[in-house]
Design goal:
Elements (H helix, E strand, L loop, with lengths): L1 H36 L1 E7 L9 H6 L3 E7 L18 E2 L14 E2 L16 E8 L14 E12 L2 E18 L15 E3 L6 E10 L3 H10 L1 E6 L13 E2 L11
Antiparallel strand pairs: 1-2, 3-4, 5-9, 6-7, 6-10, 7-9, 7-11, 8-9
């Protein structure tokens, strides 16, 4: 009789242990499932990102968006912050909707020899050195459209006259600062370069200049002073003007 009672007690204890183990397992599995559903912020290609595009350029051109995905849906090595793409370039074409992976973004030295600039077929890339004041206080960024205004001295007989005139309009900005260096050799000051007269600190601004105007721009830079104007989206170029000199900088008084 006692052995039968003992056997029943042992069976009950084993059942309780098994039940407790099952409860622990179910709770643990539930926690794992809930953790897998916790949202994580990751960077995704909003549009196709061509190989050679810098992280900064992709951001400025709105080729990157941030989405929230369940933790279990985030690929290993996914980019979760824009800071991870600083001074990095897409090693391959990244298609729309694809999660950005750190291993697909490499340093400029790893893409040497590839085209890091998306140059229109009828244009050539040309970099000019400008201080911040002459590039809209540094608000010019890759992808913007700008106008080039030239101030120079013009010969009129035996005299020289100061003149200011639009040189080109609706010109695309390809890169600013260090991103203008196709071989990836960055400057120690983050893209600043010392060019031109004196020791003034300038920034390299790389523009897509129509091929027929490249010589004009180089000549203007070497012999005059260039200012950039920043155009709003879909802006129409300003109508051609005769330019400004001391004789017409202040319009004559108009009566009536």
């Amino acid at each position: 009789m006692q052995s039968r009672v003992l056997a029943i007690l042992i069976a009950v204890m084993l059942a309780l242990v098994a039940t407790a183990a099952m409860v622990v397992y179910v709770n643990s599995a539930d926690r794992r499932a809930q953790d897998g559903l916790q949202p994580r912020r990751v960077l995704v290609a909003a549009q196709t990102i061509p190989a050679g595009t810098s992280g900064e350029d992709a951001q400025n051109r709105k080729l990157i968006t941030v989405v929230e995905l369940p933790k279990k849906g985030v690929v290993t090595g996914a980019v979760t912050s824009l800071t991870q793409l600083e001074q990095r370039y897409a090693a391959v074409d990244i298609v729309k909707g694809e999660q950005l992976l750190q291993q697909r973004w490499v340093g400029a030295e790893d893409v040497a020899g590839r085209r890091l600039l998306q140059i229109p077929e009828d244009s050539q890339a040309l970099s000019i050195g400008l201080d911040l004041t002459k590039q809209v206080a540094g608000f010019v960024t890759p992808g913007d459209k700008v106008g080039l205004v030239l101030s120079y001295k013009e010969k009129e007989g035996s005299d020289s006259v100061d003149r200011t005139h639009f040189l080109l309009q609706n010109i695309q900005v390809l890169a600013v600062g260090a991103t203008a260096l196709p071989n990836g050799s960055s400057q120690s000051d983050g893209g600043r370069v010392n060019q031109g007269r004196g020791s003034q600190s300038l920034t390299a601004v790389t523009l897509a200049i129509p091929k027929k105007h490249v010589e004009r721009v180089v000549f203007a830079v070497e012999n005059g002073s260039i200012y950039l104007t920043l155009l709003p989206p879909n802006a129409e170029p300003q109508a051609n003007t005769p330019g400004i000199t001391v004789s017409n900088v202040i319009p004559p008084n108009q009566e009536g």
